[in-house]
Write a structure and sequence with these properties.
This protein is α+β, with helices and mostly antiparallel strands. 38% of the residues lie in helices and 25% in strands. The chain has a seven-stranded mixed sheet, with helices on both faces. It starts with a strand and ends with a helix.
């Protein structure tokens, strides 16, 4: 079952993010890894900045979370994580499908370039990589991340984004 997370879920969201993010250790650049991967204060700041989390509950346990955030003229998918012990059950796919229904705007997703499993997941679910030049512009326009993270990330977009971009040209 998918549910909208509340402030009462913040500890579980924190635990899921930091459990699942261990997959990045040794994969992303060492200067971008830290423990915990997302400190509680950072999670609270993300929520204060408008990230709304949805969660997938399985047998009474919050198994995965995914955030959505409207920024300017697009919607971002943010902080998508599934508990390590509960991966491979389609939880991420269900969360992504649900969150996409919550917006009529183009959807963008940023992730680590080296997290090939994440890039492949989004590609299997209808998203395409944008070219490097566009990626840099998008990350600087819609995200608040350090330059080093821009260098080591990719952006994927839904088909609506590519239609939207053609319309603007």
């Amino acid at each position: 079952m998918i549910t909208e997370c509340t402030i009462a879920d913040i500890q579980s969201i924190f635990e899921i993010i930091n459990d699942a993010a261990v997959a990045y250790k040794g994969v992303i650049p060492p200067d971008r890894w830290h423990e915990p991967y997302m400190p509680m204060e950072h999670l609270k700041q993300e929520i204060d900045r408008g990230v709304r989390f949805s969660g997938y509950v399985e047998k009474g346990v919050l198994a995965g979370v995914m955030g959505i955030q409207d920024i300017k003229d697009v919607t971002l998918i943010r902080h998508a994580y599934v508990r390590t012990a509960m991966r491979g059950r389609g939880i991420g796919k269900k969360l992504l499908a649900r969150l996409i229904t919550l917006t009529s705007r183009p959807v963008l997703i940023g992730t680590w370039k080296a997290a090939t499993w994440a890039v492949e997941f989004y590609q299997k679910n209808g998203f395409s990589l944008v070219i490097e030049e566009e990626k840099n512009r998008l990350l600087k326009t819609y995200w608040t991340i350090p330059g080093r993270q821009v260098e080591t990330s990719v952006v994927l977009a839904d088909p609506l984004w590519f239609d939207y971009e053609r319309f603007l040209c």
